[in-house]
Design goal:
Elements: E1 9-12, H1 18-29, E2 33-38, H2 41-55, E3 59-63, H3 69-79, E4 84-87, H4 102-130, E5 133-138, H5 151-171, E6 176-183, H6 189-202, H7 206-214, H8 225-235, E7 247-250
Parallel strand pairs: 1-2, 1-4, 2-3, 4-5, 5-6, 6-7
Length: about 260
């Protein structure tokens, strides 16, 4: 399918690897020029070079911490007028309710709620003025069904979801859509780290910890960054203009819910 976005320009955050890279790859395959951001310069440069070679699109990389005001300003200056924004940030560390203090919540909110909001606030006006835009926020399946050990993520991402619910309806009339993608367990560094934590707590090997989690997923496996990215690219496409303010779950059926 031609997604109808060839020649558009996208800013994809945390895109040197994992789900962010999956989204960047899928957008590039659709002919979208990219501004890629991540904190690690080496991994980001490798990803940018690979995407340029594979897809022949223009790729600008900005190694900066987008959660910090100075880093965000650097990214936005490089991005310029973008048609597509994909926000993404690694999840806060796991723990239990009694482990977290106020500063832990502030850090989580900065990364997983306030930074996406700041990026939207900066880029939505230009999209609205030009009459077309797409925003996809990568949040978490924990928005749909909370995960006890990820309370920081539950809280921050739920706040972003509430913000999007209201904002999406305010900008849709200008040709701009905002939606959220809610990943379950995907085969990324984040999943590997969580598997390692389970293995340590329960005295398992990492392979045993992974197999235990895979058994909780109806499809019997972790998701891939490629299939996640393809879904993101469709939400950013010319065909997705009637999808507004939605939270789309990609979890292999792990969350057992009717709606």
């Amino acid at each position: 399918m031609d997604l109808g976005i060839r020649g558009r320009r996208a800013l994809v955050c945390a895109s040197s690897k994992g789900l962010g890279r999956g989204c960047a790859e899928a957008l590039a395959a659709a002919g979208v020029d990219l501004v890629l951001n991540a904190r690690g310069a080496e991994a980001l440069a490798e990803t940018a070079a690979a995407i340029r070679k594979a897809h022949g699109v223009d790729v600008i990389e900005v190694a900066a911490d987008v959660t910090a005001e100075a880093g965000r300003a650097q990214v936005l200056e490089a991005a310029g007028e973008v048609d597509i924004l994909v926000t993404n940030a690694g999840g806060p560390p796991p723990g239990m309710w009694h482990d977290w203090e106020r500063e832990d919540f502030i850090t989580a909110l900065d990364a997983n709620m306030l930074t996406p909001i700041a990026l939207m606030k900066a880029l939505l006006p230009g999209m609205m003025e030009r009459g077309w835009g797409r925003v996809v926020n990568i949040t978490s399946g924990s928005v749909k069904a909370p995960i006890a050990v990820l309370g920081l993520s539950n809280s921050a991402r739920a706040g972003l979801t509430g913000y999007v619910a209201g904002t999406a309806r305010q900008v849709a009339g200008k040709g701009v859509t905002i939606n959220n993608l809610l990943p379950g367990i995907h085969d990324t560094d984040r999943a590997a780290a969580l598997d390692a934590g389970v293995a340590q707590r329960e005295g398992l090997s990492r392979e045993e910890a992974r197999a235990k989690r895979e058994a909780t997923i109806p499809v019997g496996r972790y998701g891939t960054a490629g299939e996640f990215g393809t879904t993101c690219a469709f939400l950013c496409s010319a065909h997705a203009g009637f999808i507004v303010g939605q939270n789309i779950l990609l979890d292999g059926g792990a969350i057992n819910a009717t709606l």
